[in-house]
């Protein structure tokens, strides 16, 4: 599957420290092979899925017809669901 980033997610990843952003990007790249794996959980209200990387959350949507994943948000767990 093709993986793209919303502009807000791009800005968020650039603000993070290099080691953390590498860990997160490594996990995101694995989504292309299996977007429903890696302990992903469906968010309430049909707003997509999330994966957990330590205290950080990556929220993404899946377009099955276009075979595309869009990373919508990358935030610390205390801020992600607000």
Structure commentary:
- It is built from 2 helices and 5 strands.
- It is α+β, with helices and mostly antiparallel strands.
- It has one domain: YaeB-like fold.
- The chain has a 5-stranded mixed sheet.
- It is globular.
- The N and C termini lie far apart (28 Å).
Key words describing this protein structure:
single chain; 82 residues; five-stranded mixed sheet; 2 helices; 5 strands; 34% strand; TA_system_RelE_toxin; RelE/ParE_toxin; toxin-antitoxin system
Summarize it.
The protein is α+β, with helices and mostly antiparallel strands and 82 residues long. Helix content is 28%, strand content 34%.
Topology:
Layout: E1 2-5, H1 7-15, H2 18-31, E2 41-42, E3 49-53, E4 56-63, E5 68-76
Parallel strand pairs: 1-5
Antiparallel strand pairs: 2-3, 3-4, 4-5
Radius of gyration: 12 Å
Count of discrete domains: 1
CATH architecture, by name, is 2-Layer Sandwich
- Contiguous runs where pLDDT drops below 50 for at least 5 residues: none
| Strand order across the largest sheet | 1-5-4-3-2
Helix/strand order: EHHEEEE
* Beta-strand proportion: 25-35%
User: Per the principal axes of the C-alpha atoms, what is the gross shape?
Assistant: globular
CATH superfamily: RelE-like
Number of strands: 5
The helix-and-strand class reads alpha+beta
As for the CATH topology, it is YaeB-like fold
Organism: Candidatus Curtissbacteria bacterium GW2011_GWA1_40_9
Protein name: Plasmid stabilization system protein
Keywords: Toxin-antitoxin system
InterPro entries: RelE/ParE_toxin (IPR007712), RelE/ParE_toxin_dom_sf (IPR035093), TA_system_RelE_toxin (IPR052747)
């Amino acid at each position: 599957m093709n993986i793209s980033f919303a502009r807000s997610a791009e800005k968020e990843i650039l603000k993070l420290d290099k080691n953390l952003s590498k860990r997160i990007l490594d996990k995101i790249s694995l989504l292309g092979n299996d977007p429903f794996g890696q302990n992903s959980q469906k968010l309430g209200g049909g707003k997509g899925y999330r994966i957990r990387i330590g205290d950080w959350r990556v929220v993404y949507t899946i377009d099955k017809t276009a075979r595309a994943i869009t990373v919508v948000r990358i935030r610390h767990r205390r801020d992600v669901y607000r």
